[in-house]
Structures are given as structure tokens and as C-alpha cells.
Please model this.
Amino acid sequence: MITESNHTAKSRTAGFFLLLFLICCAFIGNYFAIRLFIGFNYLFGSIFVLLVVRLYGIRWGLLAGVAASAWTIVLFGHPYAMIWLCAEPLFVGWLLSRGRSKNLVLYDAIYWPLIGVPLLWIFFRYVMVVPFLGTVTALMMYWVIGITNALIASLLLTSFPRLSTIVKPEVDTATPIYQLIFNLMMAIVLLPAVIILIAHGRDTEQRYLQEMYDGVENSSRSTLYELRLQQREQNFSGRDRPEGAVSESARNGAVMQERLLLARHEPFHEITLLDGSGRVIASTVKELLVEKHFDVCADGEISDSITGSGIQRCLPSATSLLPLWQRVQASTYFMRSEVENGMEWSLVVETPFAPYQKLLFEDHRRSLLVVLTLNMLVLATSLYASRRLAAPLRRLSRLTTGLPERLLKNKVTHWPDSTVAEVDQLILNFKTMADALSQKFQELTFAKEILEQRVHERTEEISRANSELQHEICEHKLTEGQRDHLMDELVSQVQFLQTLMDAIPNPLFYKDMNGLYQGCNKAFEESWGLAREEIVGKSVFQLFPQSVAEVFRQADSELFERRGVQVYETQSHYADGTTRDVVLYKATYDDSSGELAGLIGTVVDITERKHAEAERGRLMQELTQKNKELEGIIYIASHDLRSPLVNIQGFSLKLGKACTELERLTLELPADARQLFDKLAGESIPKSLGFIVNSAEKMDALLSGLLRLSRLGRAALCFEMLDMPLILEKIVSSMAFQLEKAGARIELGDLHPCMADKGQVNQIFSNLLDNALKYRSAARPLVVKIYSEHFDEGIRYCVEDNGIGIPREHQEMIWDIFHRLNPDDTPGEGLGLTMARRSVDRLGGSIWVESEPDEGSRFYIILPVAAHG
Model:
């Protein structure tokens, strides 16, 4: 009694928590409703509501329906959805309580056309006054979702029969075969159809939205073009007008409105032109007054930019009990653009969503109608087919219930038949079995009498033997207990070691002194495609080819002779047919008496590593060749381009001299002609020649830099131990004039010698000092410190300045060719740091920068202390 009461209490507790869980899932299913299309969501809550109805009855089902549908007030902005969503569990629960069948899908399919759809029609058409197209789309959507959720709930009950036993332990959890066939046929057709419906709907929605976005952008571009065209016309016609006439014409509302109407891409697009303070200049909306302040979304919510061009949505506020999709229907999409006319004007292009939503609803209605028609056809077909296929099995089940008693009383007369071959064969097997059982029952009755006599005799013998065994059992219990304890420990250790070996990714094995495998791990089995039972007790000659086995045997013999550890490389054929390079690591082990017992080994696959090394060598060789070709191309191009530049510079100077000569000859011209000529020859032509000469000189400097850059890869390196203090002193001396002119100071610290090429090192530090002079701060005198530190990897030199610094986002780009921080204010070609890095790379070192804006920079160079081969 106590056990039964405890079991009942546990069942009630489990049932309560399951009910609470399903109600929470019903609410969560509606809370996280998946968005299907604009204004429509897929409500999953009725899946769990129907589960509650099926497991707990109408009352709890209604409670679950109220809890799940409560969120629709927030989701849709009205409470009416609760009516048909709560009526669904009431109707389905009523049919479940009165009917013999427990088919949720059938009852839900009856509910929607009889009750759900009429309720939807009444509230949508007459309470919320929703248009006909939107109402039809909504009721078909609810219909499809309701039947789909009922099917999912039925599949969950079929897949998890223990749910019923949690609520009612005494209930039979077996599912009728006709129900399984029905669910399967419905799921095969309905679920893919719903998925295709959702995918098609979203694709259609995206297509219409993109069409709307393109229309808004086209209207905006056309309007901006018309405004620019009008501005040019006004500028051209206003040259002879007094100041202020252009502005007055620009604000001519009638002209502007005509331009805006012509620029619209669609007749329902509305275009408004605003001044810098947001007041209307002109608009296609007749209600908007000129000079009045314009608010594009006065009574709604503006979203963030939907597209890259800045299109936004204005959704009306939920001020009335309207469905979400009807609010979306009243929404507008707009795009704000700036008018580049120097007067801070802006342009707003609006489009209503209603025309596009109507097209969407028409497409959705057709798709939903197809799915509903298919749904009803599949429902009828599934009902008929499932019951037709299950009828013979149901009759056979009733006939074979209590078959032994029927056979003893000879009450088995008529067997069912079926058109399904497997079912018909099953019935035939039962008939054959019944005949065989009937014969066996007669034989058993005779044998029973003989056995009863023999059992009596054997019982007496067993009683005597049992007394003797009791004594032996008592003696063996203690021994068996000790043995079992030791065996458990041994098995535990063996399992632990085997698990540890299986966790190792490399193949692992161990052998005895005879070279026979005693065990291995999973990786060893998978590598050679053999099970552990096929490996244990076998030699290498039984598992591997003769040539490979001989190598393994000889290596094992050598290891047994000298003991210890053995490592060697060889090739092995794997189960997938590939031959791989492997390294074998082996070691001997001893038994408890200290005698050599065998060896253990592991196999490491190094094939990928070898391939990677070979590929790296090939790529390095190819890269070296490409670099040589690129350096040659740069050198040839830079050298050949300098000849035309020399001609440009020479002839530009010659033209300048000719202009001077022409000025002398114009003294004889009349005053008016001489004044015009002086303006051309004295200002325009020399100024243009100055631009040509400056550009040619700049290009000449760039080409010179490219030539120097191309020579870096061809110049031979001569590594020697360099006296760095002497080299830096010479560099500073050569830049004395620049340093004095800039008011800069160079401080040389402790400089260690390094092993490098003298010319390359001179170029590196010259470029860094020149860079420090170019980017010095105007707020303080430039101070450059050069010092070094000795590290294991080489000598680290530091060139530290107190210049303008380098922003963090530019610290990697400064090494790129032609890149400069301030190209308009700072001279140079942007090649110095590029050449410095390439020189350091050739010397086998590294260079990097650490800097903060307005605090200066530190350039670090690491050069080797030993010669590079």
C-alpha cells in the first residue's frame, strides 16, 4: 500500500510538472512566433495546447489556450485572436471526449471550416473592418497553421508515447497502426508543402520589396537630376540679372511642383523638397503648404535604414485594435537625400506600402488555396488508406487474442484476408501456427502426465543433492567473494588502460616476446581496417605484406636484443589503399619478475608534414623567380619613362624662355592687344608651365625611387661586422644642413656592432632619419634618439623621435609603397619606409613601429650578429 501511494504521488508530481511545462511551451511558442511574411507570424502555441487537451482534457486545454493566446494581444494589437484560438481546444476536446477515435488532425480539420473560419470572418470583416482580400488571406493562413500544428502534436504523441503514461500510468501507450499510417501520409505531403509555401512567400515578399526600393531610388535620382538641371538653367539665365533673382526663381512653387511631378517613378510616389530648416519648398502632396514645417512620420515609428541607400519605414502607431498586417498596409517607406546646390536643401521621396501589399496578398492567397486544397485531399486519402490497410490487421488482432483458449475450445473458424501481400502472408503464418499449436497441445497433454511422475522422482533426488550442495556453497562463498573482488579490480584496470589507449589519436599496439600482437587501440584498428579480434594473437606476417612484415620483424628483433627505445622511419600501407610515410616509436617492457615481456609501440603519420615541406620549397622557389621578374619589370619601366620626362622638362624651360622673348616683342603692339597678351604670356602660360615642370619633377623623383627600389633585389650583399657608431656619425654629418635648418638634434646612445651589409644599413637609417625630419611636430624642437640592445636573436636598434606620431590604423599601411600620412603637406614619394623594410628583410632581420599621435614614434630594427649564408 505504501509503495502504491508513493508511486501515485510521484506520478501526480510528474504530471503536474509536465502540464506546467506544456503551458509554458504554448506561451513561448506564440511569444517566439516566426515571422512568415510582412504582418503574419507562425504561432506554434497550439501544438502544445492540443497536447494538453489530448493528455489532460478540456479544462486544462482551455487554460493552456488562454495562456498561449494572451500574447497575441501584444503581438497583433487586438484581443480577438484569443476567441478562435481558445475555441479550438474546446471544440477538439469535446470531440475527443465523445468520439472513439483520438485523431487530433481530423478533429482540428473539422474545427476550422465549421467554427474557426466563420469566427475569423465575423471579427475581421465586421468588427475590425478589414478588407476582403486581407480577411481571406488571414483565415486561410490560420487554417493551414492550425492543421499543421495539429499534425505536429499528433506526431509528438506518436514519437513519445511515455507522455501518456506520465499523466495516466495505467493507459496503454501503444499507437494503432492506422494512426501511424495516417500521420505518416499527412506528414509526407503537408510538412513539405508548408515549408515550400513559407519559402515561396518570403521570396515573393522580397521581390516586391526590392521593386519598391528600386522605385523610390529611381524617383529620388530623377528628382535630383531635374533639380540640378533647373539650377543650371537658372544660373545660365541669371548671369545678366541682379543678385537675388536666382534665389527667388528657385523658390517658385509652381515650377518646382511641376518638376517633382515629372520626376516621379510611380504615380503614387510623393516627393517633397525641403529647405535647410525643414520647411516645404515644393511638394506633390497638395495638402502640404509652402513654408510650413514638414514631418515625414508625424504619427508613427521610424525604423533604421533598411537598405544601403538610406530607405526607412514609417509604421503607424497602434492607436486602434487593428491586425499587425493592416498597420503595415498603412505604413510608408521614404528616402531622404541632400540636394547639392549649396543651399542645404533636402529631398524626401515617399511611397505607400498598400499597393505592394495587395499584390503580396493575391500571391499568398493563391498559394494558400493550393495548400488547403492539397491538405483536404490528403486528409481524405489518408483516412481512407489508413483504415483500409489496417482493417485486416485489426480483425487478425481480435481473432488471435486468447488464441490458446480458442484452440482448446475449437472456436477459430474464419480467418481474415488482405490484398497486401505481407499482411496476407502474416495471416497464413498465424493459420499454420494455430494448426501446429493444436497438435502440440494434444502431445503436451500426454507428456504432462509422464512429466509429473518423473518430476516427483527427480524432486526427491534433488532434495538429497541440495543438502550436500548447501555445505559446499558455504565453503565457496568466501573464496568467490575474494575472487570477485580481485576480478573486479583487474577488469576495472584493464578497461581503464584500454580506454586510455583508445583516446590516443595515433595507432598504438603491444606484442609479446614471440612477436604476436596482444592488444591495440581504436586508431590502430581503423588505420589497417581490422577489428581487435582479428589482430590479437597474430604476427606481422599474418597482417601485413611480406616485405613490410620482414622490416617490422627485423626491427623488433634488434629491439629485443638491446632493449630500451627504438625510433625509425618507414612506409606503411593503410586500409584506404594509400601508402604513407610513418615514424615508429617502440620500447620494451618487463614483467613482474623483471624479465623481458614484450614491446609497446606507436605509429606517427608524417605524410602530410612531408608533403607540406615539399610544397613549401616549391612555392618559395616560385616566389623567388616571380620577385626577380617583377624587379626587372620595375627597373625597365622606370628607366624608360625617364627619357620622356627629360624632354618635357627641357621643352618646358624652352617655352618659358620663349614667353620672355615674346614679352619683349609685344612692346610694339597697341595698348589693348598688349594688355591681353601680357595676361596670357605673363600669367596663364608661365603658370601652366610651372605646373608641368613641377609634375615632371615629381614624376622624376618617383621614378628615381622606383629605380632604387628595383636595385634592392639585384644588389649583391656583403656581410661584415659593422661599426655602427661610425656609420651613424657619418649619416648625421651628411644631414647636418637639414638638421640645422629644422632645428633638430640627434642623440646617439650605446650602439652595438652587427653583421650586415654596410650599404643597406646606411640606406635604412638614412631613410628613418629623413622620415623623422619630414614628420616633425611644429609645437616642439625635433629630438631623435638612436640606441641599441643585445638580445639572443640579434641586435635591436631603436630610432625614437618626438614628432607628430602615427595613428594606430595607419601603422601597418606606412610600409606600403607610395603611402604617406600627409601627402598634401609633406614632401616625398612614400618609398623610404618601403625600401627600409625590404632592406631589413634581405638582411634577415625585422622592423616595426610603435607610436601614439602627438607623442612621437619608435622604429625598432633587429639585425643579426652572425653571418647569413
Notes: The two ends are 93 Å apart (CA to CA). Confidence is low (pLDDT under 50) at residues 239-251. The chain has 25 helices and 20 strands.
